[in-house]
């Protein structure tokens, strides 16, 4: 059953706001007339099938009308978003903008910080979210439904966990793309035609990796099974491990977490 809430997405013209707004309509989370989208131009592409969706360029008007306000803007743009949201549910997609800052700048105590990613566009997004104490059970139920419309989701119990996950899942396809780039470069250096090399790499990184999405072996079990088989894959895996593959991943995720923490200092309440 669709929610009876009116939901406004500030930044609804951006790729993430559009993707999540459309997903909620496609999955019946909201009725079209209950969705408001703001953008600088007052126009948003991709919603022709739902003419009842409300469009505006006035964020204050959106905040007045909506019961749930979604902030889908870049952190550096937040200083230009002037809204009064006291008593309303505010859901932020902004990396590095803390709960403390959101409360100070919106006037709401009911704050949810979330970290969706580009996979929302294909319904494969994993979204962690953190809620402040005043957030109600009904607020959480709506939030869960919104993110399940474009993938899977979990509530986490601390803001620190969300900051870590910002670096892990906020990347979307970037980390697999880095692996694919390295594999493609190696295949091309070996003389494979580009078309063959690209299809082979996509088959591994995009196709075969879907085996991890089921209820079968865990990643560690799959790696160990391949090592135990002692074939060509085992040789490749062992060489990558010996060359410091896991150390490189650890360094990357540590750097991403540190960047999220630095963003909190940069975009904190004292920065305005």
UniProtKB/TrEMBL annotation:
Binding site for NADPH: 59
Pathway involvement of the protein, from the record: Amino-acid biosynthesis; L-proline biosynthesis; L-proline from L-glutamate 5-semialdehyde: step 1/1
Gene3D superfamilies: NAD(P)-binding Rossmann-like Domain, ProC C-terminal domain-like
Binding residue positions for NADP(+): 10-16, 39
GO BP field: L-proline biosynthetic process
Record protein name field: Pyrroline-5-carboxylate reductase
Subcellular location(s) per record: Cytoplasm
Boundaries of every Pyrroline-5-carboxylate reductase catalytic N-terminal domain copy: 6-96
Function: Catalyzes the reduction of 1-pyrroline-5-carboxylate (PCA) to L-proline.
UniProt catalytic activity: L-proline + NAD(+) = (S)-1-pyrroline-5-carboxylate + NADH + 2 H(+); L-proline + NADP(+) = (S)-1-pyrroline-5-carboxylate + NADPH + 2 H(+)
Residues in Pyrroline-5-carboxylate reductase dimerisation domain copies: 159-262
InterPro entries: 6-PGluconate_DH-like_C_sf (IPR008927), NAD(P)-bd_dom_sf (IPR036291), P5C_Rdtase_cat_N (IPR028939), P5CR_dimer (IPR029036), Pyrroline-COOH_reductase (IPR000304)
EC number(s) given by UniProt: 1.5.1.2
The entry's keywords: Amino-acid biosynthesis, Cytoplasm, NADP, Oxidoreductase, Proline biosynthesis
PANTHER family in alphabetical order: PYRROLINE-5-CARBOXYLATE REDUCTASE, PYRROLINE-5-CARBOXYLATE REDUCTASE 3
């Amino acid at each position: 059953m669709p929610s009876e809430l009116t939901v406004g997405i500030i930044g609804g013209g951006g790729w993430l706001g559009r993707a999540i707004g459309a997903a909620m309509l496609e999955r019946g989370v909201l009725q079209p007339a209950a969705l408001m989208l703001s953008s600088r131009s007052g126009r948003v592409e991709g919603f022709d099938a739902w003419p009842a969706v409300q469009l505006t360029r006035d964020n204050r008007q959106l905040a007045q009308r909506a019961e749930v306000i979604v902030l889908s803007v870049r952190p550096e743009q937040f200083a230009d978003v002037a809204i009064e949201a006291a008593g309303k549910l505010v859901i932020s997609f902004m990396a590095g903008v803390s709960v403390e800052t959101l409360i100070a700048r919106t006037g709401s105590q009911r704050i949810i910080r979330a970290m969706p990613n580009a996979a929302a566009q294909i319904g494969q997004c994993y979204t962690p979210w953190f809620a402040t104490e005043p957030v109600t059970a009904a607020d959480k139920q709506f939030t869960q439904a919104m993110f399940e419309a474009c993938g899977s989701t979990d509530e986490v119990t601390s803001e620190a966990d969300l900051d870590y996950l910002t670096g892990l899942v906020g990347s979307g396809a970037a980390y697999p793309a880095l692996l694919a780039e390295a594999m493609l470069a190696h295949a091309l250096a070996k003389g494979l035609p580009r078309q063959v090399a690209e299809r082979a790499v996509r088959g591994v990184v995009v196709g075969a990796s879907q085996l991890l999405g089921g209820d079968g072996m865990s990643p560690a079990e799959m790696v160990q099974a391949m090592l135990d088989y002692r074939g060509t894959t085992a040789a490749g895996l062992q060489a990558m491990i010996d060359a410091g593959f896991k150390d490189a991943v650890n360094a990357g995720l540590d750097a991403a977490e540190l960047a999220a923490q630095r963003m909190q200092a940069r975009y904190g309440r004292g920065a305005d």
